[in-house]
C-alpha cells in the first residue's frame, strides 16, 4: 500500500533539494517501484500537480505528474530530458510544494518535448503545451537541482 512521504522544504532541506541526482536504472528495483507509488499518493494528497524525487529525499531523476482534473492519468517520468523547446515563452504563476507559501511569475517556453522512460522501461516522448509544459519543466528543474525561487521574476509569499 502506498504511503504519504514527507516533502522536503526550504530552507532546512536545501542541500537535499539541490544535490546531484542519479539516473534511474532498469529493471526497476522494488524500492524504486514503491517510491513511485508513494510519490503518486503523496502528490495527490499534498495537493499538487507534480512532484520530483528530490522533494521526498530521493536523489533520483524521477518525477510524477498529476493532472487528473485536466484529463491526464497520473504518470511517472524516469530520467526525463527536455529535447525541444518553443521559442515562444509565456509567464505563469507557479508554486512549489518545497517552498510553502511562495508563488512566483516564471517565464518558460510555451511548448516542450520531453524524452523519458515509463515505469515499464519503455522510452516515451511527451509533447506538452500550456500547463503540462510548465509542469514538465518545473519537475525537470527539480531533478536538476533548480527551484522556482531561482527563476521567478516577481515573487511573493502568502
UniProtKB/TrEMBL annotation:
MF GO annotations: metal ion binding; peptide deformylase activity
Catalytic activity: N-terminal N-formyl-L-methionyl-[peptide] + H2O = N-terminal L-methionyl-[peptide] + formate
Keywords (A to Z) from UniProt: Hydrolase, Iron, Metal-binding, Protein biosynthesis
One annotated GO biological process: translation
Cross-referenced InterPro entries: Peptide_deformylase, Peptide_deformylase_sf
Keyword GTP-binding recorded: no
Active site per database record: 139
PANTHER family for the chain: PEPTIDE DEFORMYLASE
Protein name (record): Peptide deformylase
Source organism (scientific name): Candidatus Doudnabacteria bacterium RIFCSPHIGHO2_01_52_17
